[in-house]
Amino acid sequence: MRLNEESLETLIVRQMVEGGWEQGSAGEYDPAYAVDLNQLTEFIETTQPDLAEALSLREPTSTRHEFLSRLQGEITRNGVVHVLRKGVDHRQHHVDLFFPTPSPGNARATELFSANRFTVTRQVHYSVTATGLSLDLVAFVNGLPVLTFELKNNITKQTFDDAVVQYKRDRDPRDLLFQFGRCIAHFALDDQQVRFCTHLKGKQSWFLPFDKGWNNGAGNPPNPNGLKTDYLWRETLAPASLANIIENYAQIVITKNPRTGKKSSSQIFPRYHQLDVVRELLADVEAQGPGHRYLIQHSAGSGKSNSIAW
């Protein structure tokens, strides 16, 4: 299947919607707060109706500005994953911003989880100052951006490498959407391979593979039912899977240099092989029961410690 960039974008959005996402509107994104205000408002109105009025979410008042500023300040300090997990305290209110995966038989938790709004939006104009710039796709959870995507095509001889260059060269890390912790990951991909980055730093941005591997090497296996990379949006980023990643895998880790005492923060997102092996182990233990032995092979530097911890 040969796709240009626009048709790839159309295909991805269509397949994400088929998998449980909703398509958002680029006009509802507010770059000043880095939020899809309509989606956030509808989520809060549905799940916490008293708060929607108290926070004046439908009206551009000082009350709404104060809440949105508080929300953005919490994301700046702690990252979007923390805010989704813990919510935000604002004045006398506690605002939940995400409801986690329900345990079996919990009807109320199931109802709340189904109220989460997973939306994907095309051509999002993300900058307050450079208003003509846009991203191919942005994924939101309850109005908060969590993932960005730059797509490339093979017709014009562009690949994921060109998307990586675009992130490094053309996406200013000072823009609110690209600041550390604001999104969980940024994906550069084509129809053959996927790369991702958790911290955009201009030319110093570090992109890692998010491929399945093929023939004991890099890349992805042939897909008789579609594109080689469609596992990303059809499986890994399906709403239930993404919710699981937000709840159990993605996080900001703070480490302290024992020699200098200086603290540094890094954002963690599981690589494909890490997510795959942990989920396979959990599924096997659930099916077979505890007490079995497993041998797991990771190459040097591929994240063994995180896989063990997860």
Describe the structure.
This protein is an alpha+beta fold and 310 residues long. The protein has 11 helices and 13 strands. Strands 1-6-7-8-9-10-11 form a 7-stranded mixed sheet, with helices on both faces. A two-stranded antiparallel ribbon has the order 2-3. A hairpin with a 2-residue loop joins strand 7 and strand 8. The two termini are 36 Å apart.
Entry summary:
The chain is an alpha+beta fold.
Q: How are the SSEs ordered, and which strands pair?
A:
Layout: H1 5-18, E1 22-23, E2 29-30, E3 35-36, H2 37-47, H3 49-54, H4 62-78, H5 80-86, E4 88-90, E5 93-95, H6 107-114, E6 118-124, E7 135-141, E8 144-151, H7 160-170, E9 185-189, E10 194-197, E11 208-209, H8 231-236, H9 239-248, E12 251-256, E13 263-268, H10 272-288, H11 304-309
Tell me the span between the first and last alpha carbons.
36 Å
Query: Based on the structure, what is the oligomeric state of the protein chains?
Result: single chain
Structure summary, number of beta strands: 13
In which order are the strands of the major sheet placed? 1-6-7-8-9-10-11
> How many helical stretches?
11
The 3D shape can be described as globular
Alpha-beta content class: alpha+beta
Largest sheet: 7 strands, mixed
Mean pLDDT: 94
What is the strand content? Answer: 15-25%
Spell out the helices and strands N to C.
HEEEHHHHEEHEEEHEEEHHEEHH
Keyword list:
single chain; 310 residues; alpha+beta; two-stranded antiparallel ribbon; 13 strands
